[in-house]
Design brief:
Helix content is 28%, strand content 23%. It has 492 residues and is of the alpha/beta class. The chain binds flavin-adenine dinucleotide (FAD). Flavin-adenine dinucleotide binds next to helix 1, strand 10, helix 10, strand 19 and helix 14.
Length: 492
């Protein structure tokens, strides 16, 4: 049987590609390596947060029609303009993000999420994670306002249901092994399904099978020594298969191959993500506390920026600390402000009524140095500047080797708590090179006919760091473009 479009992968990028392909082509097949109960890739592990440009509540109402007048009244949604999104991308990637692809990502962010809504995916506002209530009103602070109803699991379930209802065939436990290709381009995929290797012919193929972060050997080979020690936050199935398949037929390698998105992740979390826990092994409230490493020292500016702009690069910083871990320390003043993930039962946490008691429980750590560091930190806080979580408040420390630039509260109110974290890798940044139409480019700079790519496995967009919530938007925007163009190529 020959398909019009074969999509490799079963996450957000793949399902958006399949839906867009099916709007122009007839026979669309999705090959998902994972069995059905583990399907959905990293997308399923997410909170479902989408970064998108919007001009205010009227735009948001198009994505969230059930937003009530009271909710609008009680919330300062602000705006997140295309210029702000572009600036954020440029700044956090140190001006290396591909200008064309980034412009497409930004300009298509709102229309793409609107298209998803029109296709039946439901969204809401992320009051729980991205807004703080000050003076009786919620205020969004980080350019990240919209999330899928039901988070990542809700998103994948909904996209899958819509795809299947539209007549798209989804095969689970179907691992793509290689591309069927000749001088004229790509004509299908060799796949292992239920233990049987078979050829599936297709007029066009979309690769959306994620990065290589779950491949220990590639991680160490491309990111460097020590990366075999990181934990994988999400799916165990993203081992770089589709990147390899494309390279095998001549595709160019592109982007930040030694770079990745990596965060603070519970020190005792399992080797790969656990769908029952989702993203809750992450520990993202460090801007309200301090980090201490095994030498008892601070090593990073916890308040350099809003967490959306620092969390994705701080995992790497933690990995390079002695014994690859660190403590996040808070006092009772900020307890209410800690994110829900601090209250899960699978958490590595100690507590004490004095800093001395807390430090005495910090195993694997130079406790004397840690106590000294905390006392010096307390003495260096500019207490005359008021604390405000909604803005970069400039409440800082002065005179330390590593200063904290914002939100520097003294640790003075018991009980004190410390959480042990290590590095959790989210996804690799290096991958394939694509055109603005999501066609894969070969190492001679030519398009490989019939081959398209989207999502984590595309290189050139993210470098060093990443603005929170851009991964799903990236997958949706380029998934839709890849699918639509693959569909057109197959139909025409
Ligand atoms: C814990 C966690 C939380 C996150 N939270 C957010 C968030 O809130 N917002 C956000 O924007 N981003 C978030 N991210 C990042 C986001 O998950 C990714 O950027 C995005 O989901 C990538 O989508 P994708 O479709 O490219 O890849 P994936 O969703 O990972 O999909 C890849 C798919 O390919 C399949 N596959 C792999 N190999 C093969 C093969 N050989 N044959 C067939 N199929 C194959 C996999 O099984 C999987 O279904 C988070 C990531 C994690 C891990």
């Amino acid at each position: 049987m020959t398909y019009d479009v074969i999509v490799v992968g079963g996450g957000n990028a793949a399902l958006c590609a399949a839906l867009a392909a099916q709007e122009v082509a007839k026979k669309v097949l999705v090959l998902e390596r994972a069995p059905e109960d583990e399907a959905g890739g990293n997308s399923r592990f997410t909170a479902g947060l989408f970064r998108l440009a919007y001009r205010g509540p009227d735009d948001l109402k198009q994505l969230i029609p059930d937003l009530t007048p009271q909710e609008i009244e009680n919330t300062d949604f602000g705006t997140y303009t295309e210029e702000q999104f572009l600036d954020d991308m440029a700044r956090v990637t140190e001006y290396r993000c591909d200008p064309d692809l980034t412009e497409i990502l930004v300009k298509r962010s709102f229309p793409t999420v609107k298209w998803m809504r029109e296709r039946g995916v439901r969204f809401t506002a992320a009051w729980g994670r991205q807004a703080f209530k000050v003076g009786g009103k919620f205020k969004f602070w980080g350019g990240l306002t919209v999330e899928a109803v039901g988070g990542g699991p809700g998103l994948v379930e909904s996209l899958t249901r819509i795809a299947q209802k539209s007549g798209i065939e989804v095969r689970y436990g179907a691992r793509a092994l290689s591309l069927i290709a000749d001088d004229a381009g790509v004509h299908g995929v060799v796949v292992k399904h239920n233990g049987k290797t078979q050829r599936v012919e297709g007029k066009a193929v979309v690769l959306a099978a994620g990065g290589f972060q779950a491949n220990t050997e590639w991680r160490t080979r491309y990111m460097g020594p020590g990366w075999e020690l990181a934990k994988v936050r999400g799916t165990r199935f993203n081992t770089g298969d589709a990147i390899r398949m494309a390279l095998d037929v001549g595709a160019a390698a592109h982007g930040n191959w030694s770079g990745c998105h990596a965060v603070a992740w519970d020190r005792n979390a399992p080797e790969f993500g656990d769908l029952a826990v989702g993203d809750a092994f992450q520990k993202h409230s460090y801007p309200w506390g301090v980090y201490i490493n095994a030498d008892g020292k601070r090593f990073v500016d916890e308040g350099a920026d809003f967490r959306n702009y620092t969390y994705a690069k701080y995992g790497r910083v933690i990995l390079t600390q002695p014994k690859q871990f660190a403590w996040q320390i808070f006092d009772a003043k900020v307890k209410q402000q800690l994110r829900d993930e601090y209250r899960i039962k699978q958490v590595t946490k100690i507590a004490g009524n004095t800093l001395e008691e807390l430090v005495s429980k910090m195993d694997d750590t130079d406790q004397k140095a840690a106590l000294e560091t905390l006392k010096k930190y307390n003495a260096a806080v500019r207490q005359d500047i008021p604390f405000n979580p909604n803005v970069k408040d400039g409440r800082r420390t002065e005179g330390l080797d590593v200063n904290k630039s914002n939100w520097a509260n003294t640790l003075d109110t018991p009980p004190f708590e410390a959480y042990a974290v290590t590095c959790g890798i989210t996804f690799s940044f290096g991958g394939l090179k694509i055109t603005n139409d999501a066609q894969v480019i070969n190492s001679d700079g030519e398009v490989i006919r019939g081959l398209y790519a989207a999502g984590e496995l595309v290189g050139g967009i993210f470098w060093f760091n990443y603005p929170g919530g851009s991964g799903l938007t990236n997958g949706a925007v380029f998934g839709r473009i890849a699918g639509a163009n693959a569909g057109k190529a197959a139909a025409g």
